[in-house]
Amino acid sequence: MQGQNDWGVTYTPTDLICALEGSIVEIHCAFNYPSRLNDADTAVEEAFWFTRFSDNEPVDLRADSEYSGRVQYHCGENDCTLRITDLRESDSAEYKFRFITNQPGRKYTGEPGVTLSVTGNISPCTWSRLTCHSSCPLPDHPSYIWYESGKNIQKDAHSFPAYFYGENSYACAVKGHEDFPSPSSRVNVCLYPADAPKVSVLMNPSGDVMKDSSVNLTCSIDANPAAKYTWYKEKQLLLSGEPQLVFTSVQSSDSGEYYCTAENELGKTTSEHVSLKVKYGPQTSTLSVSPSGEIVEGSSVTLTCSSDANPAANYTWYKENLKLLQGPEGVYHFSSISSEDRGNYYCKSENKHGQINSASLFLDVQCE
User: Fold this and answer.
1) Using one digit for the tens of pLDDT, what is the confidence trace for 267-302?
2) Residues 342 and 353 sit within 8 Å (Cβ to Cβ)
3) DSSP 225
4) What does the pLDDT look like over 142-179, one tens digit per residue?
């Protein structure tokens, strides 16, 4: 154990880290140094991680082109964590931490460093086996604990084969020594669409969709290899290959039930149906009369007002601009029409998105 006034670097983990290509690794260290030397306070002026030398000087990983954009330091007063993303097999090396102080000639490198071994991913879409190894002597017939993304899974053997779904991290520990688990390793494996979470369709914007507005339907699912998408409207094929179905100016004819399928070489799955209901004010208002021939006093006559609207229109009836009746029924009925009913009639179709009046219709009632 190093004292408060000693020079030292302690790494966590202490010796070997095994990681998979494409994953992320963190190496942590704590360091200490004398607080005062030669009647002067000691301060750290520079601290960095390195794996190689150039002109007999260690090269800061942040300045190493091989690690460009993939290295971060998170350092405190007496500790520093190295984080490397998108690991490559070429990152396999011994990593060391070095700090330089304001004291003349006083710099320190933690020896030995931590060895990182990067291997390729488990081949996607194959039956794979995870095995737990220990560099320490173990008791006879030890039991093991396995963790999937930090959660204990019911496995007690030192290895097990399975298909793995999703990008999860796996770690193991010897039972009774759970405080000393292995480093986590990511397993990037296949997702079978038929076994994956259901494919989902997102409509943007949600809620009421107004005529002439822009609407996007997006089909998504976790799948590896990536899925190919196909869009349908009420079993009619619309589009193949794209995850989005885009309406730049949606029309009433676009209303209907939509769904998508996601497929790769391992399987195919179908989404739930999404209902696209295009809302719009009345487009037309048409007035008709039945019977269409000569209208005789005492006969039964029906005026019908029809309109294309969503939601359905309410109707208001007028004679010579005098309001007669209002309601959801587009019918105005004379059970026994009289000469006093002669005149010009029209109707107004209206919903919350707009209104429109029909053309006038003249009823000429003939005497018997």
Assistant:
1) 788 888 888 999 999 988 899 999 888 888 899 999
2) no
3) S
4) 777 777 777 777 666 666 555 454 456 667 777 766 66
Preceding peptide of 58 cis, ω within 30°: no
Q: Report helix, strand and coil shares of the chain as percent, to nearest 5.
A: 5, 50, 45
| Residue ranges of domains in the chain, CATH in brackets | 8-119 (2.60.40.10), 128-186 (no CATH), 195-272 (2.60.40.10), 281-366 (2.60.40.10)
Number of other CB atoms surrounding residue 53 within 10 Å: 9
Angle CA 338–339–341, to nearest 5? 70
Question: Cis peptide leading into 311, omega within 30 of 0?
Answer: yes
Q: What is the pLDDT of residues 194-206, one digit of tens each?
A: 444 467 888 988 8
The answer to whether 166 touches 188, Cβ cutoff 8 Å, is no
Distance (Å) of CA 50 to CA 17, 60, 61, 109: 16, 5, 5, 10
Degrees, nearest 5: CA angle 156-161-162? 110
Q: Which residues contact 256 (CB under 8 A, 6 or more apart)?
A: 233, 234, 275, 276
pLDDT exceeding 70 applies to what percent of the chain? Answer: 81
Question: Using CA atoms, how far apart are residues 348 and 344, in angstroms rounded to an integer?
Answer: 14
* 94 pLDDT more than 90: yes
* For range 229-248, the mean pLDDT: 89
Q: Dig out the tokens for 48 from the structure.
A: 């960095």
Are 317 and 325 in contact by the 8 Å Cβ rule? The answer is yes
Q: How far apart are CA 53 and CA 61, in angstroms?
A: 11
Q: What is the DSSP string of 48-113?
A: EEES-EETTEEPPGGG-GGGTTTEEEEE-SSEEEEEE-S--GGG-EEEEEEEEESSTT-EEE-SS-
Nearest Cα residue to 353 out of 250, 286, 284, 280: 280
Q: How far is CA 38 from the centre of its chain?
A: 59
